[in-house]
Design goal:
2 domains; seven-stranded parallel sheet; 10 helices; about 35% helix; globular
């Protein structure tokens, strides 16, 4: 038994303190990190991992918080990995996702951890996938991986998620045009958030037309386009159900 095995065992028992310590170990790539992740990897694979991605300003964090609340009402435990952008000048990050999800504070069935990108491209921090393994092994039923705001070619989230929700929003100029080249192909569900805004129906129609024109394989999943107003919870149960049914 290695010196790091006790930490892995405590994570497997679901101890909150051990979970936080393991994630810090992963974030810092501290000595012993690889051994802990390897130990936990053998116990992972039970959680449903949902990637939530889309352009900046689409309300991803608010949607993730609303999804987590919906899963909790269904009796499921949730882990959230939120990736925030790093400053190109200082290398620091505000890690504001945890602030925007403050309504989940105090619920021991929800564990939220933010990571800075630290220069990583593709919408994810380099440590995000190991962090998913830690939360999975700790027994979380659903792990939500929220990327930093991304453009059309930044699709790394597909490598770490079983289901991918691509979030768009009306009123961001030619937003649908911006996501079509890359994110369109990886979506298991499209979510038009802030659907109470003018132009929401047009955004939905454009997405459906793009999906209709895209090349499809026999038996391919029919990607739904759902509408949500995340701050009020409207449409979130349907979107959450679509995300976990793929």
């Amino acid at each position: 038994m290695t010196a790091t095995a006790p930490l892995a065992e405590r994570v497997l028992r679901g101890e909150q303190g051990a979970l936080a310590r393991a994630l810090t170990l992963v974030e810092r790539r501290a000595p012993g990190c690889d051994e802990v992740v390897a130990e936990l990897h053998r116990a992972a694979g039970r959680a449903h991992v949902i990637g939530v991605t889309g352009p900046p300003g689409s309300g991803k964090s608010t949607l993730v918080a609303a999804m987590a609340a919906e899963y909790r009402r269904a009796g499921r435990t949730v882990g959230i990995i939120a990736v925030d952008p790093s400053s190109v000048f200082t290398g620091g990050a505000i890690l504001g996702d945890r602030i925007r999800m403050s309504e989940l504070a105090g619920d021991r069935g929800v564990f939220i951890r933010s990571f800075a990108t630290r220069g990583a491209l593709g919408g994810l921090a380099r440590v995000a996938l190991d962090a998913v393994t830690v939360l999975d092994a700790a027994g979380r039923d659903v792990v939500v991986l929220e990327t930093v705001g991304v453009g059309q070619a930044e699709v790394d989230v597909v490598s770490g998620a079983q289901s991918v929700a691509v979030v768009s929003v009306p009123g961001l100029g030619d937003g649908v045009q911006a996501i079509k080249a890359g994110l369109l192909e990886i979506a298991d569900v499209h979510v038009v958030n802030k659907a109470d805004r003018e132009g929401a129906h047009r955004t939905v129609s454009e997405l459906r037309e793009m999906l209709r024109l895209s090349r499809r394989r026999p038996g391919q999943w029919n990607v739904p386009v759902e509408q949500t107003v995340a701050h009020s919870g409207e449409g979130v149960p349907i979107s959450s159900s679509a995300s976990t049914s793929t």
